[in-house]
Amino acid sequence: MNETSGGTPGNTTYQTVAFWLTDPGTSVLFKLQNQPLAFGSPANQHPTITIDTTETYQTIDGFGYTLTGGSATLLNKMSSAARAELLKELFATEGTSIGVSYLRLSIGASDLSDHVFSYNDLPAGQTDPEMTKFDLGPDRKDLIPVLKEILAINPEIKLMGSPWSPPTWMKTNNSSVGGSLKPEFYDAYAKYFVKYIQAMAAEGIRIDAITVQNEPLHPGNNPSLLMPAQEQAAFIKQSLGPAFKAANLDTKIIIYDHNADRIDYPISILNDPEAKKYINGSAFHLYGGTIDALDQVHKAHPDKNLYFTEQWVGAPGNLAGDLAWHTKNLTIGATRNWCKTVLEWNLAADQNQDPHTEGGCTQCLGAITINGGVTRNPAYYTIAHASKFVRPGSVRVSSNIPAGLQNVAFKAPNGDKVLIVFNEGQDSRTFNISYNGNIVTTSLNRGAVGTYVW
Q: Which parts of the sequence belong to the Glycosyl hydrolase family 30 beta sandwich domain (predicted)?
């Protein structure tokens, strides 16, 4: 940020601080505040958040959403001018754009697609272990065109693919819901992943990472698959890892992709050295467990990365409650527990929380609602407070947590320091931010979130 002279002659130059605020109590929605903030050396008794950029943690890959098939369908139905304006707001960084830097995609259908499909659907009784009939199919209609528009705005955006189910002919129950992957099709399914990454690359779309299975311990969704830890480990070491190696793919393989209450799942896989050598890290949701459990996964395997990949907001949404919970547990909690991404579920839905599959989520509120116009919902503001400023390549740095002032700090690639603070107390709080021996004094109302950049 800009630097201005302050204090007496001979004093160091003091930096001005940009302050972006969301305050549900006063209906302020992610607005740059006009009040001047500048570092100085005033003495006071307020609690102090001290930033130490010499103590560093993980590097950030990005903040964003899942671009579901349903999200892409709704975006593609917009007029080209309205869609271009919305995508610029979401994915550019200048002005009031929020700079989304990471997207998760479904490999085949998710439960927020308008119908169930895979890239190799066959008539009953047929199989295709060599993947000769693989086709990106339905993704060519909406998802790929929208992705290309996004990539034109931000060519560096990182993309993660996650499957909800393999093709049904690979499964023990021949159904999109539940069932397990037949061991005789491990190699075929590995080829399916390779074909997906190669086919997307042929469209100019680079898949940076895949997770092996979305929510492998939740076989009741449509689509879904039950994949216990020992089966995921076997699939990786026998088929998926060798297939990626043979195809010279540098796409990251990420395991688990489910709740924080079963950290035994990723740890047990990483404890297998034959599987571990192919794995970049583990992904988490927070529909069960507590976010601090992720620190135990980091301690067990500190050489492997952690990612936070999904959390829904239930319709109709409650900005005060949703912003508070998601900021505390995800933006702050997940990054303080080593996550390189924070991704909300999902980018867009209509006013009825459609589209979704039969049996899929009926109450998943999009970050935006597309219904003739565009409505911005809680997940939009939660992500905006981080994505615009904590750019890919940012590093989490040390900051203490005074009572009631949840926070996390980063150093961005351009040298900016970024501090995100949530006042979880019962009253308005005045506090100091201390950096390099100078402090700035600011305040947040109860339930408000502030991002401070200097």
A: 393-452
Are 308 and 427 within one domain? no
Q: How far apart are CA 99 and CA 91, in angstroms?
A: 5
What is residue 73's predicted lDDT score, i.e. its pLDDT? 98
Residues 48 and 86 in one domain: no
User: Among all chains, which residue has been given the structure tokens 């793919």?
Assistant: 249
Residue 151, CB-side half-sphere exposure with 13 Å CA sphere: 15
- Which residues 6+ apart lie within 8 Å of 95 measured at CB? none
How many whole angstroms from its chain centre is CA 398?
Answer: 22
Q: Is residue 399 part of a domain?
A: no
CB 60 within 8 A of CB 307: no
Query: What is the spatial distance between Cα 129 and Cα 127, in angstroms, rounded to a whole number?
Result: 6
Residue 14's pLDDT is what?
65
CB atoms within 10 A of CB 108: 28
Mean pLDDT, consecutive 10-residue segments, the chain of 454 residues?
Answer: 38 78 98 93 93 98 98 98 98 96 98 98 97 97 98 98 98 98 98 98 98 98 98 98 98 98 98 98 98 98 98 98 98 98 98 97 98 96 98 98 98 98 98 96 98 98
Query: Is 24:447 a contact under the CB 8 Å cutoff?
Result: yes
**pTM, rounded to two decimals:** 0.96
Closest C-alpha among 21, 46, 20 to residue 439: 46
As annotated, the active-site residues are 215, 310
Distances (CA, A) of 238 to 215, 277, 358, 448: 21, 12, 34, 49
Q: Rounded distance, CA 87 to CA 216, Å?
A: 32
Domain that holds residue 14: 3-57+406-453
At residue 36, the pLDDT reads: 84
Same domain, 69 and 52: no
Domain boundary, last residue among 341, 370, 392: 392
Residue position matching structure tokens 């929380």: 353
